[in-house]
């Protein structure tokens, strides 16, 4: 599965090695080391426009967040039966208008990760085939011939072979012509540099996400917490993998250069973004509003927990002081918890009732639509809905604001139809109750007459 990656990476290395080797006065060892660095430059330079476009689109998406929120709010209260589709289309049209493509952000990692895996696989393979000395290497690795693999296996960085790593067994290090102390002395500063650059890169990413965090989204809050946690893991990974894992020196060199490039690129692009695409006042207001609302929610939860603990401890303390009032104190505590739970349930029920009301209104609006047009049908046509409307007694105009809270393309017509339907249901229920009461009254009269006859 990774064989094609090895062929691609080995081809790039071979091309750069041929170019550098043609320069007079450059040794073969220096040519191979420079090829690893130039491989990084080749990949990152090719991805630089995409990386910049990814960050620019991310900033544009952030600045458009108030408009997306307005679209969601508009269609969440709309009585149009196709409101969900319209909301999706409006969001897509807004992204298309500003040239935002969410798939572009996946291109840099989808290219960099295979390059790193291919380079690691190739270097590990070279270290394995060169374990018995570079003079015995005859096996090809990707597009590199046996002679080129032999030359790479004997290439050094500061006197240490590129395939060597600190955790390599001592006999294999001896076969490569080096020792553990030599490898450790060269790899240690590189590993610490890679960890430091990784930490700085993660800090830049965390700060960028913190400034544009959507506090109202649970997913984004979880992503931010996960990124903060991964910062510590990302800094410790180069240390453990570099000292205790099979990390060839060529990988460490590539790692240091890659993280240095990423750190510089992030810093420069961040400065350019702040100059060309600063955060808009509308987004800052929305961000501050969602952040304050989130803080208020957490404050309310903490207050509720404190009140519950205080109520419980009052019951415990009162029970200790007045054992005879134990049932009374704990009943008061349970009543307090039940009242607070009932208040929360009532608020949830009101929100759910509003959603159900909008859903029912959308169903009524769907009945009023023709199959080919999105406008209201003529009220003069003999349709099932219009017949039901005509049979309904006319209602006065809604007098309360609650009756007029549903707005949309259909306006008060839908409100009147909802009220008419409720009136019909109420009238049918009253008629049913009246008939049941009449039946009960007739049965009671019949029973009384029968009893009177028996007495006579």
Automatic annotation (TrEMBL):
Per the record, membrane topology reads: Multi-pass membrane protein
Kindly indicate where the leader peptide sits in this chain: none
Domain Membrane insertase YidC/Oxa/ALB C-terminal: from-to ranges? 32-270
Task: Write the gene name.
Answer: yidC
Give the keywords, sorted: Membrane, Transmembrane, Transmembrane helix
An example Pfam family from this entry, by short name, is 60KD_IMP
Using the UniProt annotation, give all residue ranges assigned to the region (Disordered).
Answer: 287-315
- What segments bear the compositional bias annotation Basic residues? 296-306
Q: Where in the cell is it found?
A: Membrane
Q: Would you identify the family this protein belongs to, as annotated?
A: Belongs to the OXA1/ALB3/YidC family. Type 1 subfamily.
Q: How does it assemble?
A: Interacts with the Sec translocase complex via SecD. Specifically interacts with transmembrane segments of nascent integral membrane proteins during membrane integration.
Top-level division of the source organism's lineage: Bacteria
Transmembrane portions of the chain: 31-52, 100-120, 183-206, 227-256
Record's InterPro entries? YidC/ALB3/OXA1/COX18, YidC/Oxa/ALB_C
Its protein name is Membrane protein insertase YidC
Q: What is its main location?
A: membrane
What role is this protein assigned?
Required for the insertion and/or proper folding and/or complex formation of integral membrane proteins into the membrane. Involved in integration of membrane proteins that insert both dependently and independently of the Sec translocase complex, as well as at least some lipoproteins. Aids folding of multispanning membrane proteins.
């Amino acid at each position: 599965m990774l064989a094609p990656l090895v062929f691609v990476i080995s081809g790039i290395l071979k091309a750069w090695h041929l170019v550098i080797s043609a320069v007079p006065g450059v040794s073969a060892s220096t040519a191979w080391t420079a090829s690893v660095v130039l491989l990084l430059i080749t990949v990152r330079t090719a991805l630089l426009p995409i990386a910049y476009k990814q960050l620019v689109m991310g900033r544009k998406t952030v600045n458009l967040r108030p408009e997306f929120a307005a679209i969601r709010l508009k269609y969440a209260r709309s009585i149009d039966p196709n409101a969900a589709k319209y909301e999706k289309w409006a969001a897509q049209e807004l992204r298309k208008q500003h040239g935002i493509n969410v798939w572009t952000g996946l291109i840099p990692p989808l290219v960099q990760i295979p390059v790193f895996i291919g380079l690691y696989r190739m270097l590990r393979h070279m270290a394995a085939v060169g374990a018995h000395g570079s003079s015995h290497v005859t096996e090809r690795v990707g597009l590199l011939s046996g002679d080129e693999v032999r030359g790479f296996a004997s290439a050094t960085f500061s006197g240490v072979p590129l395939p060597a790593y600190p955790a390599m067994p001592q006999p294999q290090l001896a076969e490569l012509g080096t020792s553990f102390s030599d490898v450790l002395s060269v790899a240690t500063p590189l590993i610490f540099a890679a960890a430091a650059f990784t930490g700085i890169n993660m800090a830049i990413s965390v700060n960028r996400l913190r400034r544009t965090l959507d506090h109202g989204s649970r997913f984004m809050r979880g992503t931010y917490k996960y990124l903060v946690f991964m910062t510590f893991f990302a800094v410790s990974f180069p240390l453990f993998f570099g000292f205790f894992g099979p990390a060839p020196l060529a990988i460490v060199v590539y790692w240091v250069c890659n993280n240095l490039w990423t750190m510089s690129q992030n810093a420069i692009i961040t400065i350019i973004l702040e100059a060309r695409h600063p955060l808009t006042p509308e987004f800052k207001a929305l961000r501050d509003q969602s952040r304050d609302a989130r803080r208020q929610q957490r404050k309310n939860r903490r207050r509720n927990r404190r009140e519950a603990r205080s109520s419980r401890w009052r019951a415990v303390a009162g029970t200790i002081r007045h054992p005879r009032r134990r049932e009374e104190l704990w009943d008061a505590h349970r009543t307090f918890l039940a009242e607070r739970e009932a208040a929360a349930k009532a608020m949830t029920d009101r929100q759910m009732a509003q959603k159900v009301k909008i859903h029912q209104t959308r169903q009524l609006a769907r009945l009023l639509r023709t199959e080919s047009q999105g406008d209201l049908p003529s009220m003069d046509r003999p349709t099932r809905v219009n017949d039901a409307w005509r049979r309904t007694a006319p209602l006065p105009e809604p007098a309360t604001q609650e009756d007029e809270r549903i707005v949309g393309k259909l306006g008060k017509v839908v409100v009147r139809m909802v009220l008419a339907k409720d009136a019909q249901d109420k009238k049918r229920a009253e008629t049913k109750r009246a008939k049941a009461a009449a039946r009960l009254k007739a049965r009671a009269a019949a029973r009384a007459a029968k009893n009177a006859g028996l007495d006579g």
